[in-house]
């Protein structure tokens, strides 16, 4: 058991300073003067710091992105310590362009390893392209028979994609939906968006014809271009979730995009941040022409969340939703993203200046600054 004392809780909504008691990785009680007799209790005195839900990063290349400049450019895998240092206690691993050298069995093993190391890790089946790649023979069976699989990956409007048609996308939605309801998961189709002019026109067609399918669609990299952002804003206003990459290629910084989306009428509950961490980032120096290819950082999610607060766009309790309860709802992870009795004991403790002091995953300290 663990007792967290002198915590100013952001659940993410703000609560008065109090205590949190946890056991076996779950929150048992929240209140003043909690006490346990006859059992060993580890105490963490947070000395009035903010206690927030552990962050959820729903797009991380945990096994490293594929190499787009030959084998020597393969991106290395993430470590538990790297994730924990950014406040991430729940991670969804996925494949990118490379579904060959970086394969699903290795992704599954990495996700299980992160879980053994104390974090909560999940995965998406398949990869960027078509035909889809699976472990059990179909996307639906991967969701049904593999505990860690909570959805499927696909790429759209990218010149490296397989140029999926509307029918192919509908059939993948069908697979995540069947696999999801059979196994008691929601099931999402997480869609990488590139910068082609076709944007998400096909997703708009699908939800206009079949409005009930919108909750299975999870487009990401929605701020890659201004044109793409504008159509993703319309998608969110129809009720869809949009994921804003906090790093990588984007027309504006993620926190500024949140402000623009809010002004355009998108509810905050429809937006999430993710890092695209350890994807390969290609950069060309405009002066020298030198090309570099490096791992995308995991740190941008937290930086962009803090920028929402320091730029005066949102108060902390609202800014936190992009990394906590909003991705938990998108992924249908019912015990994640909130500080409440019965939820998992995943916490980030922040100092007054909004820097990370310490991180706890399922009740155990996994990082201290
Ligand atoms: Zn990616």
Structural features, described:
By secondary structure, the chain is α/β, with parallel strands linked by helices. It folds into two domains: 83 residues, Urease, subunit C, domain 1 (Roll), CATH 2.30.40; 277 residues, TIM Barrel. The chain is 26% helix and 29% strand. It has ten helices and 17 strands. The strands form four sheets. It has a seven-stranded mixed sheet with strand order 3-2-1-4-15-16-17. The protein has a six-stranded parallel sheet with strand order 5-6-7-8-9-10, sandwiched between helices. Strands 11-12 form a two-stranded parallel sheet. The longest helix has 18 residues. The radius of gyration is 20 Å and the shape is globular. The site of zinc ion has 6 residues, from loops. Zinc ion (ZN) binds next to loops.
Task: List the topology elements.
Layout: E1 2-10, E2 14-23, E3 26-31, E4 42-53, E5 55-60, H1 80-85, E6 88-93, H2 104-116, E7 120-125, H3 139-145, E8 149-156, H4 166-183, E9 188-193, H5 201-209, E10 217-220, H6 226-237, E11 242-245, H7 254-263, E12 271-274, E13 280-284, E14 291-295, H8 300-310, H9 316-319, H10 325-331, E15 347-350, E16 356-361, E17 364-368
Helix pairs in contact: 3-4, 7-8
The protein binds zinc ion.
Zinc ion (ZN) binds at residues 59, 61, 96, 192, 276, 279.
User: How would you state the average pLDDT, rounded?
Assistant: 96
Shape: globular
Class of secondary structure makeup: alpha/beta
Strand content: 25-35%
Helical content stands at 25-40%
Side by side, the strands of the main sheet go 3-2-1-4-15-16-17
Cofactors, ions and other ligands in the entry: zinc ion
Please give the largest β-sheet.
Answer: 7 strands, mixed
Number of helices: 10
